[in-house]
Amino acid sequence: MDDLNTERPGGESHPSYWVATDEQLLVGLRTGDEQAFVTLVTRYQGSMRRLARTCVRTSAVADEVVQDTWLAVVRGVDKFEGRSSFKTWLMRILMNRARTTGIREARSEAICEASAVDQSRFDHSGQWTSPPQQWTEDIDDRVRAGEMAAQIQTAMEDLPPQQRVVVTLHDMEGLTSKEVCTVLSISESNQRVLLHRGRSRLRQALETEFGAE
Could you tell me if 36 and 29 are in contact, meaning their C-beta atoms sit under 8 angstroms apart? Predict the structure, then answer.
């Protein structure tokens, strides 16, 4: 799939597309409206790359997974019945392809779930009962802030794959717990454990690096 230009010929974009809902854009997609497709790609491309990258080794392979996913969306859009949101449906297609690609790459990173979790740090909905200190308020310069951003990225990459993808979907992409379960085909209890453990590992890494209490 070639890279898409998000502007119409002559450099003018159609402003109404950018405020349209996914449902409205799907109507256009089903009728072959190219600009509706371009708008959906623009809206979700970054999220899809981040999610695919949790399952495959390189950004180049992640881009291939994203392109393959969009082809599947175009071919299967008439079968989409709207039982879930378009975003949930899209991410589930992406995850299926990313996992298959990851297996094909013979990625054998072990999933370690043996570490203990302090359940008192989370409530029943998976939110912090004792939120991490807002370290950015104490950071006086952009270099320090950049160091923290880099540490967060490193900590995310060091998470076991299943924890990383759950944290990415829930905390970075804003999916609800139910939507995460749908995308990953896992139970609510499994999702909760993975989310708690992923957050706990992230917090521990950041507290170690920045001395948060």
Answer: yes
* First and final C-alpha spacing in the chain: 48
Main-chain dihedrals φ then ψ at residue 126, nearest 5 degrees: 90, 10
Helices 34-53 and 59-76, axial angle in degrees (round to 10) = 140
Interacting residues of 146 by C-beta distance below 8 A, sequence separation 6+: none
* Segment 137-165, tens digit of pLDDT: 454 555 555 666 677 778 888 889 899 99
Choose which CATH entry (2.40.170.20, 1.20.140.160, 3.10.20.30, 3.90.226.10) describes domain 119-210.
1.20.140.160
Please tell me the distance from the alpha carbon of residue 74 to that of residue 80, in angstroms, as a whole number. Answer: 10
Nearest-angstrom CA–CA distance, 51 and 178 = 17
